[in-house]
Automatic annotation (TrEMBL):
Residues 13-72 form the HTH tetR-type domain. It holds the Pfam family TetR_N. SUPFAM superfamilies: Homeodomain-like, Tetracyclin repressor-like, C-terminal domain. Residues 35-54 bind DNA. InterPro entries: Homeodomain-like_sf, HTH-type_TetR-like_transc_reg, HTH_TetR, Tet_transcr_reg_TetR-rel_C_sf. This is TetR family transcriptional regulator. Keywords: DNA-binding, Transcription, Transcription regulation. PANTHER family: HTH-TYPE TRANSCRIPTIONAL REGULATOR BETI (PTHR30055:SF234), HTH-TYPE TRANSCRIPTIONAL REGULATOR RUTR (PTHR30055). It comes from the Bacteria.
Amino acid sequence: MTAEPSQMRADAKENRARVLTVARELFAERGLEVPMAAIARRAGVGVATLYRRFPTKESLVAEAFTEQFAVCQAFIDEALKDPDPWRGFCTVIEKVCRLQACDRGFTAAFTASFPDLHTEVRDRTWQDFGALVRRAKDSGQLRADFSPHDLTLVLIANGGLSSLPVEIATAASQRLVAYLLESFRAGTDVLPPPVPVSLDLVLG
């Protein structure tokens, strides 16, 4: 069992913070397949030190992406307070896709089946996104056949852009999302039925 950050010596806290910073950088650049040894090397710590702080790759991924999960939840919390349900819905899609396009590790971390990966946080985010969808439908602005599972399709399509340079990925994501949001408006042509594809099943 690792010590809580508040119980660590100053140098240990510094090492831990540096490891997390490096892990986020490498996961963003190369995805989650980065070896633990590569993270330790760039962070300037020994592999044994890294494993003392984070016994498994899963625990490191979970900790490294805590902030991103919290940011996604904050996007949805803010959107649920927006008096315009359609604007709130669109804003969440835009912001999450922008975050995803800039970070190769985000999609894998968000959808991975790791047991330590903040399942409660992810479940709450999924439930609140469902509430956001219902609000937008009830307002008559979101097409009636939109399914929360369609978010999976959006992330798959948008995730392919993360291999591009950040500036290009961000601009391309903005245009792609604009196209998609237009297709989600109520009154557009009927689509094939939604496919209940789990994020874990497709991208985990």
